[in-house]
Specification:
InterPro entries: Rce1/LyrA-like_dom. With about 230 residues, this protein is mostly helical. The protein has nine helices and no strands. The chain has one domain. The chain starts with a helix and ends with a helix.
Length: about 230
């Protein structure tokens, strides 16, 4: 039974099936959508005897990777904070951050959220959305450069919609952020850990600003500088 399940999940078209089924779990809890997909990833990992390269983790973390991830995360944060998010907020309103508002000034909540974020958002989301969904769709479409581009757009839209709890602005902003990250994965198809670090550092900055209650103050300050 396990072998049959692994063989089926290993089929090129299985990724489409999983992407269509996963949202159905959202009727119970939005987190189930993510954990269902992540469960499939680990079933595939176990069946492949933990061949991490199957999901784009083929390179170890080096000093160059760390430096690159910090620089890219900072650039992305500045671009979104100074340009993209203010523009989107003028058009679409404010983000719904009610799900994490309780960490403001709450040290224990902040630490717990940071740990959860690095494990499930930085690592978990990247291995699921880029390492499995994006890579799987690209291979299904023929593994050409165009296939990877189509896959980047589809996966980013899927990723954006998964953040609908932040409001429509969250869907649009996350889609744009995800598209940039996906294009970066297209150029570094064997180095998913670079994206994990970028994702983690980017979210760490945002979570820290919310904890310090400086998430709006920093935006106004940056706009004044420019």
């Amino acid at each position: 039974m396990k072998t049959k399940l692994f063989n089926y999940l290993n089929k090129p078209y299985a990724v489409v099936f999983i992407m269509l089924i996963a949202p159905l779990f959202g009727f119970m809890d939005r987190n189930f959508v993510f954990f269902f997909g992540l469960g499939v990833v680990f079933l595939l990992l176990k069946g492949s005897k933990y061949d991490w390269s199957k999901f784009g983790i083929g390179e170890k973390i080096t000093k160059k990777t760390i430096t690159k991830s910090i620089l890219i995360a900072l650039v992305l944060f500045l671009v979104f904070t100074v340009i993209i998010d203010p523009l989107l907020q003028n058009l679409l309103g404010t983000y719904d951050l009610s799900s994490i508002d309780d960490i403001r000034g709450n040290l224990s909540g902040y630490v717990i959220l940071m740990l959860v974020m690095w494990v499930f958002a930085a690592f978990g989301e990247e291995i699921l959305f880029r390492g499995y969904y994006m890579k799987g769709l690209a291979e299904l479409f023929g593994n050409s450069n165009k296939a990877w581009m189509y896959s980047a757009v589809i996966t980013s839209l899927y990723f954006g919609i998964s953040h609908a709890y932040q409001g429509f602005i969250g869907v649009v902003s996350v889609f744009l952020w995800s598209l940039l990250i996906s294009l970066l994965f297209n150029k570094n198809r064997n180095n998913l850990l670079l994206l994990v670090l970028i994702h983690g550092i980017y979210d760490s900055i945002g979570i820290t600003l919310i904890y310090l209650n400086k998430d709006t103050v920093i935006t106004d300050w940056l706009l004044q500088l420019l």
